[in-house]
Write a structure and sequence with these properties.
By secondary structure, the chain is of the alpha+beta class. It has 2 helices and 2 strands. A two-stranded antiparallel ribbon has the order 1-2. The longest helix has 6 residues. The chain is elongated and about 70 Å long. The relative contact order is 0.08.
Length: about 80
């Protein structure tokens, strides 16, 4: 039975959370010493979004107009 897990950062190391069902089936307890063998590394593809797709999900109440920050101050070029 394949059980995908995610590698996470833990201090300056990496950690893998063992799902409780998996641990119970294999009698793994806190403090158990286990051997890790690389079986398969799965790289998830990152989904590319189009700006139009993201904007379509944007709610009207979150759309705001331009801000008027006033006249230039100092040597700014507008």
């Amino acid at each position: 039975m394949a059980t995908p897990v995610k590698v996470k950062k833990w201090g300056s190391s990496m950690a893998v959370l063992i799902p409780s069902q998996f641990a119970k089936m294999r009698k793994i307890n806190i403090g158990s010493v286990i051997d890790l063998e690389p079986v398969k590394v799965v790289k998830a593809k990152r989904r590319r979004y189009k700006l139009s797709e993201l904007m379509a999900k944007f709610k009207p109440q979150h759309r705001h107009g331009e801000w008027d920050l006033g006249d230039p101050v100092g040597k700014e070029i507008w």
